[in-house]
Amino acid sequence: MARRTALGLASPIFPQAPVIILTHGTPGNRVSMISRASFLYKHGFNVLLFDFQSYGRSQGAFSTLGMVESEDVLAAIAYLRGLPNTMYSKIGVLGLSMGATAAVLAASRSDDIAALVAESCPVDATRVTSDVPDEEARTADQELVEEVYGVDITQARPIDVVNKLAGHTAIFFINGDADSVTPLDGMQALYQAASQPKQYWVVPGAGHAQAFDSDTAGYISHVNAFFDAYLLKS
């Protein structure tokens, strides 16, 4: 990665086992994904956690709502492809909120992601009011990110690219029905726009990015089954 980025790869369980990359939301960092990483590791997957640019111990100026962060996901894949024990491993991603945006954007540009869990994924990251409260802020953020990073954050729209996963990435949407940040109708729109193979799970009573805490056993069961289906098949 061009910036210094904090990475953490659990010791491979066995060479060439599938690897799950976990991509955190905002606010957050790789530590906020440890509970999810733990059950995936116990299930038999290798796991990779890292801090997005400008989060945790990674360098960077500020969040770009998934745009530059998607480059971090692609760099994490390149890192795995450079390691002897994972260079041929199947790769999955579990992305949370902004991390889901980054993962969908990355998967639209890479054939290396075989399976993707998009949890509390926005339709349009620049319309999430907790991050971008109004049109004035949206314009200001757009101009600042363009000046510093040379990217247009108004392209951080998973709804526009999720169909590009067709043929190489299975996607699993997870959303709480009490999520006021990325509401359920947004997940339904993303699901309709996505191509097969796809699935979704609505978690009763769960708020934004709270599916794991609201139904831990159900979350573990659903996510393990999804990754088993698309990362362990020949």
In a nutshell, what does this entry contain?
GO terms for molecular function: serine-type peptidase activity. The chain is α/β, with parallel strands linked by helices and 234 residues long.
The count of domains is 1
How do the helices and strands follow one another from N- to C-terminus? EEHEHEHEHHEHEHH
Can you tell me the CATH class? Alpha Beta
- The percentage of residues in β strands lies in 15-25%
- Report on the biggest sheet: 7 strands, mixed
Distinct helical segment count: 8
CATH superfamily: Alpha/Beta hydrolase fold, catalytic domain
Shape: globular
Q: Percentage of helical residues? A: 25-40%
Mean of the pLDDT scores?
91
Strand-pairing-aware structural class: alpha/beta
CATH architecture verdict = 3-Layer(aba) Sandwich
How widely separated are the two ends?
31 Å
Task: Output the keywords.
AB_hydrolase_fold, hydrolase, alpha/beta, 8 helices, serine-type peptidase activity, Alpha/beta fold hydrolase, 234 residues, Rossmann fold
Structure description:
This protein has 234 residues and is α/β, with parallel strands linked by helices. It has one domain (7-231): Alpha/Beta hydrolase fold, catalytic domain (Rossmann fold), CATH 3.40.50.1820. The chain is built from 8 helices and 7 strands. It has a 7-stranded mixed β-sheet with strand order 1-3-2-4-5-6-7, sandwiched between helices. The protein is globular, with a radius of gyration of 16 Å. It starts with 6 loop residues before the first strand and ends with a helix.
